[in-house]
Every structure is written in C-alpha cells, then in structure tokens.
Amino acid sequence: MPLLLDTCTLWWLSNEKDRTRLSAQAVALLKDFSDDLFVSAISAFELGTKMTKGKLPLATKLTPEEWFREALQTHGVTQVPINFQIAAQSTQLPLIHNDSCDRMIIATAQEYKMKILTPDRLISQYPQADCVW
Fold it and tell me: Taking residues 3-28, what's their average pLDDT?
C-alpha cells in the first residue's frame, strides 16, 4: 500500500537536523516504500504558511515553492493534488483534529487508499486513517 507522508514527516525527512525525529519504523518504511511515497499538495500550503510566519526557518534562501519541489525530487516523493472530493470529504470528518490541513491529509489518504506516515496521535485517532509510524 502506498505511503502518504504527513507534513511534519516530509519536513523531518528533508532537514538533516530533524531527521533523528523519524522513528526507526518510519525510516524503514521510507526505504521499503521508496518507489511508493506521496505527499498531499496541502502540505505545500501548510509548510509555506509556516515558513512565511517564521515558524519553520529555512537554512537556504529558497522560496517555499522551491523548497517543496527540491524536497520531493531529493526524496522521490510524488505530490497528490487536492480535488473536490478530497476537499468535501475533509469537511465531513469529525473534529478530533482542529487542523484542517491534517483533515485534508486524512481525506487524501482515503481517496487514494494510502497509509499515512505520521507521528501525529490526533490523526491516528480517526477511524478513517490507516496510520503507521
């Protein structure tokens, strides 16, 4: 089954100083599924917003778009676009998690039948989310 990386997983994977935050199982899964790694386009929005607000400092002068493109290329991750089905489905999920980006990630995983690679315990509480970490 393909793996959908949540936003913090992509960030940690792409930043050497944060890579140690990945669990041993997450590192093994990233290797085992190296040809089947995906990320929702909403993660570009979430990361870009945090970068613009200074919550995620970049070590380089890349724009959020350039950083995201480079992260995908470097790690062989494919972006999954958000369609109206995903957007609508995310609004029907229970409000276990107040983060609408995370609900979009859950809906994306449902739409494309993917496991979510995430340390986020709130995402794991959704019965609709098949999470691994």
Answer: 96
Which amino acid does the sequence have at 59? A
The two structure tokens encoding residue 21: 């935050």
Q: Please list, in sequence order, all residues whose beta carbon lies within 8 angstroms of the beta carbon of residue 112, skipping any fewer than 6 positions away.
A: 2, 4, 38, 80
| pTM of the predicted protein model | 0.93
Among 131, 3, 8, smallest CA distance to 78 is for: 3
Number of C-alpha atoms within 13 angstroms, CB side, residue 33? 21
State the virtual CA torsion across 118, 19, 60, 36 in degrees, nearest 10: -50
3 state DSSP class of 93: coil
In CATH, what number does 3-132 get? 3.40.50.1010
- The domains of the chain are located at 3-132
pLDDT the model gives residue 61 = 81
